[in-house]
Input
Amino acid sequence: MILGITGGIASGKSTVVRILRELGARVVDCDDLVRCLTDHEPEILNAIRTRFGEEYFSGAGALLRGRLGQLILEDEQARHELEAILHPRVIETCSRISEDSKSRNEPLAICAPLLIEADMLYLVDRTWLVSCTREQQVERLMQRNGISRELAEQWISIQMPLEEKQKYADDVLDNSVDGIEGLADEVSRRWNEIIR
Output
């Protein structure tokens, strides 16, 4: 069984990943994959440098994530071009790990914020959507990133709404009411159903 986990920014995906790992699940977190690619993969870094320019890199050659993040927030075309650089490698890696898990008959969870938007649904057998209210997303994002309400709203607005994502989900994990304990109980129950 390959489980896909998705949701909006600050909806609680990372918390679900942490809970699953504590339960002993094998998890691929696509945010971690992207960080790894943009930290250590010369081919990816060169493609980003070629497309966006040296001003998005430090003198030591490290990607300036904040500066690039601001660009993709304001420029939809730039966002799509960055995704075109990153997504094929992320999908290739997830596909390889998924095939390995299937060959071992081991369950796997793939956490991908853009599972739907990046056409990755074919990689998974079941999809969980981690959901909360928009206001909770805004508050959590403001607190987590130390940003203004306006900027938090802007980040949320460039993503597919959770209500739209829900149409693609087999299960919705409501992270708006019961706190971390309630979410942990629900994740544990649903994961145990998968691995039985």
Q: What stands out?
A: Residues 76 and 83 are 11 Å apart (CA to CA). The chain has one domain: 2-191. The beta strands are 2-7, 27-29, 108-111, 126-131, 171-174. The chain has a mean pLDDT of 95.
